[in-house]
């Protein structure tokens, strides 16, 4: 029997597999498609996801294949500069196509010992008090202690579990593709800039190899969004908005997406869980979808591993939904708002103009960008220090950096006093005595996902939080 079956080899599933393998869980990833997709549905990592890659020692791999952007325009396309004094050591967006993200995370999962089986479609699920049985399209069955559906917005796992997916259907649709364009580049980009003065859902982005990524509003809603648009359909929409089709030809791939917003009623059904797009879908405004899923995986992975390894305190697995459901609900809200602000109707345009003025205030600009980049997330851990429930940015220590100490995915007690102890939890929590000029608190206890579980200097208070998040002490 496996420990965990992960259904879906996208960023969420692959990140989850790697997180589970850090703690020794036996993991298999089942992916319906025989080959990795080349469709670029997301184009980058936001700050919180960049921090997670740094915490796991993966960031250099991503930086080598991505491009840093310190640019605004991430909230509803309102062009404001990147906020100053953001609470992070990684104040940028990393442009990197989703297929590259998938490949890097797959390589990491396999390095750690996860198995990835492609061309394996899950067609049935059943569970009992001991585990979950997955039925595959070829008639075989696979048994595991837990299963996580990371299989996208049309999640078969969610449907088989009977979990409701309420929300709002798509009202508008957008065409997307990688193509060749015959129009000279200077002329092309001038025309695109002209169109984007009013139509923020239109765009043409040059790619490194001379091709272009093209985005244009569709004429209406397709009966089946899984069916890609034709080249003629894309041409017609380019002409409709730009007065020219730019000489578009030779598409590598074409796709379409809507602006539906839906969220699973619950993220858990017995021994099965949902994560990523299987748990929530929303418009791609602000580029939050891939990042939200990766962060789901970072939250669930160590908790599920704790249960498998026998030390999870009561309620730890249920805290996954308690923490992540409100975060996704907030993303659904802000993407709905962004879509409304991109409407060409007079009312939304008036609100957009007012918000643009408000974003000239540094605090407003920072607040909105911290929302999009997820560094403003605060979990409800109860009353306590202002850091409690927040992720802690990478800080310099006398002997290195904080994030360098988190590669193993364990809890971390950073002790600037040298007088505290986590001895009963040494198999789960690293105790590091070091000092930082950037950290104005005697000590902090970090969960494996980087969020502050306790801050202070009192040993009894520390032990209460150790028990809450890391279970009973040993010895």
Which stretches are low in confidence, meaning pLDDT under 50 for 5 or more residues running? none
CATH-defined topology of the largest domain: FAD/NAD(P)-binding domain
Radius of gyration: 23 Å
Number of strands: 24
Cofactor: FAD
Pfam families: FAD_binding_3, Rng_hyd_C
Keywords: FAD, Flavoprotein
Domain FAD-binding: 2-334
In short:
The protein is of the alpha+beta class and 475 residues long. The chain has helices at residues 11-22, 47-55, 59-65, 98-111, 156-161, 185-196, 231-242, 289-308, 318-341, 346-358, 362-373, 459-470, and strands spanning 2-7, 27-31, 44-45, 67-69, 93-95, 115-118, 122-127, 132-136, 141-149, 167-168, 173-180, 203-206, 212-217, 249-258, 261-263, 268-269, 272-274, 280-281, 396-397, 400-401, 411-415, 429-433, 443-446, 452-456.
3D architecture notes:
The protein is an alpha+beta fold and 475 residues long. The chain has 3 domains: 2-167 and 262-373, FAD/NAD(P)-binding domain, CATH 3.50.50.60; 173-258, 2-Layer Sandwich (Alpha-Beta Plaits); 396-470, 3-Layer(aba) Sandwich (Glutaredoxin), CATH 3.40.30. Helices cover 32% and strands 22% of the residues. Strands 1, 2, 6, 7, 8, 9, 16 and 17 form an 8-stranded mixed β-sheet that branches. Helix 1 links the parallel strand 1 and strand 2 (27-31). The two termini are 30 Å apart.
